[in-house]
Write a structure and sequence with these properties.
Strand content: 5-15%
Helix content: 40-55%
Structural class: alpha/beta
Shape: globular
Largest sheet: 7 strands, parallel
Distance between the termini: 62 Å
DNA sequence: GTTGGCGTATTTTTT
DNA sequence: ATACGCCAAC
């Protein structure tokens, strides 16, 4: 900004001081990475080595030394949260002059670019962004049109295949040639129609947000050149997780100036399932033969033992860049291994350990993270934490913007700015019900198809559709009026007021008030919260509109909304934990078939990815790391007995202690490829655990809560429910148990919820009754 | 033709 | 618990 109007001498003096300040507090390697501002740079950085910090300081350094102006810098990150934090830190380092600097995820950055330039390839700036759910709807419509059995060929699966093709930049024609097997052939069959439907809806799916810019750059070299000149400095974080399209984009953007700086760790590549290509980072040096490569190998995060454990995990993998991690941190505690009887028992052991460390060692609840492989595992952990009133937050799973009631409102709003959005029309055209059933919708679609119109255009001409009864035409006409009326008010009313009026007149609010259940009340509150969110968004952003709100919101994940409110234990998948760190980390569910997931054990490359995931999880821990597994677990509706994970047989046992302080005893050969052993854990080593448990406690470093005299909670929650007790139900609210019948899975309670709702018979297995009072 | 109730299958990770 | 398909009643 103005500051750069100083004379050359004045500037260099001020710059020098600022630059020196930015370099202070970095180690020699980091400093070198920051100072290498000319030409391609790759920073290969282990976990906890301060790679994001290095990137941040490099950007600040560029600005402080006047090498680049903020608007000449773009940084692409993996999450919105990472971008936000990086931006804040750069601002703190250089003062306020960062306006015009682009920082965000690939997706959000290129969505923004498409908003400006998309008209050149036929997209209006109000394009809708389709999430997986919307895309699935489009696929389903395509399958139905072709009379393909959606039971056998699930829209989800088909979409995943199309998405993975798009990820690798394989177009419909090419895909048709390479499709193998029934499912792929069906995917190839609907792929062109899927693309056409999206185009007609003026919509982009997640993959398009990367592919369309490529198309734009290829068809309009002048546009590419404009951005190449604008962004003289390109930074990419988490480069190991870029896919083909992201790779192509980065090469194109870096094509002119070649000032590309990438940061990554091949050992932390965990998104291959999403098309991430580890080859991108492995081949950086051959892509840019004048690249400077800097290794950051010193770990500042974890204790020596944790690092040693992590090292022993990753060393099992064959393909990786040479790197040797080291730390000067203290040795720290042993990594603790805890075995549990069931997932409930596991959750309880974790919960007790957390409370114990909280009370005795003074850890804040913020210091804890419990990591697991699948979202479904959060349930039992939540139950245990809730029971003991330990505050927690769950990241992932169902986020605010994924709730049905929210998606309904968003669909209405999307229709206002982009009436061609067919997925949104289908979502809300008959919700709340207004007499436009399947048959009418089918006829609308057929008409659109025959006339080559979008769905909305067909609706506009509904009077011309003679297959429809007058009644149906009227119903559609009323819907059309509802949307058109509010679309015409886009310019005049404030976005939040308009949204409020629309959902009122659409009958959404009445629908939610129709039945007075707690569930509906919660939904109604959520909708109101969404309206407030719109108001807030408009207040915070300069050129905000419903259109920009919708596009921004489509790319939010709930990690991005999650503001750190209060002290809570964090529960999340291992994937979601990437880039984070916590003093105390639990990795739960270390069992064969779960972690590693069963399907991943076939393929060497997939097994290696699971192992990297374990590595990522372990290296999140700063001071204490707990590994847990259960001997049995409810999965797919039944209790299954579990063998502990092969990963536990591979790790360096010298840094691990069991709960009673023993060394970890391993069966190193158990999963060797040629052993062919299918022995169950029990057959193999029947007395292993009993021996351990019967042994007297030796010097135990981790103090266990069983010795603290606290109440023991037995491994059954449902026993608490008996005739006479008061319980709470998620839908019906509070009630009183009148009687009980049946046992085990069939156990049923008759509960009286007051005069309005009356008596309900509830299966304990499904209804989550919570005892109150 | 539309709506709502019932039975059945469902869980990998995500921008 | 939830989503979806199928079937019977309005």
């Amino acid at each position: 900004m103005r500051q750069f109007k100083l004379t050359r001498d004045e500037r260099s003096l001020a710059d020098e001081e600022a630059a020196q300040e930015i370099l202070d507090g970095l180690n020699p390697q980091q400093r070198e990475a920051v100072k290498t501002t000319d030409g391609p740079v790759m920073i290969i950085a282990g976990p906890g080595s301060g790679k994001t910090r290095t990137l941040t300081h490099r950007i600040a350094y560029l600005i402080a030394t006047g090498t680049a102006q903020p608007h000449e810098i773009i940084a692409l990150t993996f999450t919105n949260k990472a971008a936000r934090e990086m931006k804040e830190r750069v601002q703190a380092l250089v003062g306020e002059e960062t306006r015009g600097m682009w920082m965000g995820t690939f997706h959000s950055s290129f969505a923004r670019l498409l908003r400006r330039e998309g008209d050149k390839i036929g997209y209006s700036k109000d394009f809708s962004i389709y999430d997986t759910d919307d895309s699935k709807r489009i696929v389903r419509a395509q399958l139905n049109r072709r009379n393909i059995d959606t039971q056998r060929f699930k829209p989800r699966t088909i979409h995943r295949m199309i998405s993975s093709a798009k990820n690798q930049m394989i177009g419909p024609a090419e895909y048709e040639d390479m499709a193998r097997g029934d499912t792929q052939e069906k995917a190839a069959e609907v792929y062109p129609g899927y693309e056409k439907a999206l185009e007609q809806a003026n919509a982009m799916d997640f993959d398009d947000l990367l592919l369309k810019p490529i198309e734009l750059f290829e068809n309009h070299p002048d546009v590419l050149e404009k951005y190449q000149q604008r962004w003289r400095y390109l930074h990419i974080d988490e480069y190991q997780d870029t896919n083909r399209a992201q790779y192509v984009l980065s090469r194109k953007l870096a094509g002119g100036h070649r000032n590309i700086c990438v940061v990554g760790d091949d050992a932390q590549s965990i998104y291959a399932f999403r098309g991430a290509d580890i080859g991108n980072i492995l081949s950086f040096q051959s892509d840019y033969d004048d690249a400077t490569v800097i290794r950051l190998e010193r770990n500042y995060r974890s204790t020596e033992r944790i690092l040693q454990l992590a090292d022993s995990i990753i060393e099992q993998n064959e393909e990786q860049l040479e790197k040797s991690l080291w730390t000067e941190n203290e040795e720290g505690d042993y990594v603790a291994l805890m075995e549990a009887l069931s997932e409930k028992d596991e959750a309880q052991k974790i919960e007790r350990t957390i409370r114990d460390l909280h009370l005795r060692e003074g850890y804040s609840y913020n210091d804890f993270a419990v990591l697991y492989r699948t979202n479904a595992q959060s349930r039992s952990l939540e139950d245990a934490l809730r029971r003991e009133n330990v505050p927690y937050r769950v990241i992932g799973g169902m986020s605010f913007y994924e709730r049905k009631e929210i998606k309904d409102v968003l669909a209405y709003l999307r229709l206002l700015v982009n009436p061609n959005d067919a997925a949104s029309i289908r979502r809300v055209i008959n919700y709340p019900t207004r007499g436009i059933g399947d048959k009418t919708q089918e006829r609308l679609i057929r008409f659109a198809q025959e006339e080559g119109l979008s769905l909305w255009q067909a609706i506009e001409r509904v009077e011309d559709i003679d297959t429809l009864s007058t009644r149906a035409q009227n119903a559609v006409g009323k819907f059309r009026f509802l949307i058109a009326k509010h679309a015409s008010k886009l310019g005049e009313m404030s976005p939040d007021d308009l949204a409020q009026e629309l959902i009122q007149e659409a009958g959404l609010l009445d629908e939610l008030r129709k039945e007075h259940t707690q569930e509906n009340l919660r939904r109604w509150e959520n909708v109101q919260e969404l309206i407030s969110a719109i108001a807030e968004y408009v207040g915070e952003n300069e050129d905000a509109s419903i259109s920009t709100f919708l596009q921004d919101v489509a790319l939010l994940t709930d990690q991005d909304n999650e503001f750190d409110d209060g002290e809570r234990v964090t529960l999340m998948t291992l994937h979601a934990a990437k880039g984070l760190e916590f003093p105390v980390v639990f990795i739960a569910g270390l069992e064969e078939g779960l972690f590693p997931l069963s399907h991943a054990t076939e393929e060497q490359s997939e097994l290696e990815e699971e192992r990297r995931l374990f590595y990522v999880g372990a290296t999140r821990a700063e001071e204490r790391l707990y590994l847990t597994h259960a001997r049995s677990r409810y999965r797919y509706g039944e209790r299954q007995s579990c063998t502990r994970s092969r990963f536990l047989e591979e790790i360096d046992s010298s840094v691990v202690r069991t709960e009673v302080g023993d060394e970890l005893r391993q069966k190193k050969d158990r999963f060797k490829a040629d052993s062919g052993s299918t022995q169950s854990y029990d057959d193999m080593d029947p007395h292993y655990y009993r021996e351990n448990l019967s042994e007297k406690k030796k010097t135990v470093r981790q103090k266990k809560s069983s010795s603290s005299g606290r109440r023991v909670v037995y491994d059954e929650g449902q026993g608490e429910i008996a005739p006479g007790v008061r319980v709470e139900h998620s839908k019906f609210g509070e009630g009183k148990v009148l009687s009980m019948e049946g046992e085990g899975d069939k156990a049923t309670a008759v509960v009286f919820f007051g005069n309005e709702i009356g008596q309900k018979k509830l299966k304990l297995k499904y209804a989550q009754l919570r005892r109150v009072g």
